[in-house]
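Posting this for the archive.
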Amino acid sequence: MITKLIFGLLWCLVHLVISICDLWSCLSNKLECYLISSKVLSKYQSLHLERLKCLGVVVDSGEAKNVMEVKQLLHWFSTIGIKYVALYDIEGVIKESLEPGMEASRDDKSMNSSDVCAYTKTSHGSHRHMVVECLSGSDGKEAIAKAANLLYSANYNCSTHGYGKINIVFTEADMACALRSVGGGGPEPDLLLVYGPVRCHLGFPAWRLRYTEIMHMGPLKSMKYGSIVKVLYQFSRKHQNYGQ
């Protein structure tokens, strides 16, 4: 009886300690994000983003229906100075919501600070414009199907023009070349931010994630400017011994 009581007290004590540590971690992170947003912490004010050629962003399709939050996220990226954003959700909700606005912006050749979804290519010296690429799960499937068909057609033609029976071996380079040929290549994100309840890339084209750092950012509704700056700062401080 006494043993059970002792173990019960120990269990409650351990649970209390873990809960306090988790609460402290959450509060300290929120405080740090607030201080970053307020520009109190000087080390976060100058980000060195030379290595960040492309930023990938994955949003859960259920949360992607909140277009205003997605646009706010893009506005923050533009303010920070990101040049290229690959924006993805598996069901194509973002693509359907934002591409009409992008088309209108291309026609009008105008862009304002509240609408950063205009698909404009500018010089690398400008920090107020960026390229936004919208992707969905169907894009990846279509690209794979076209690339496979291209490889099959090329090797079938070789086998029917007197080369005889050969063993066909497809390499990673062959597949990458075929994907580029059918327009399914695109830049590989150096950093991928995932917004949603699960910690995975939710079907983002895997061939574009060979050397990508993946960070889970939590639900889109709890996104914070400070947390984005913090992640970008941490990425800029990392040393990679691999890459293109």
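Helices lie at 2-37, 67-80, 93-108, 137-159, 172-181, 225-237. The beta strands are 55-59, 84-88, 131-135, 191-195, 213-218.
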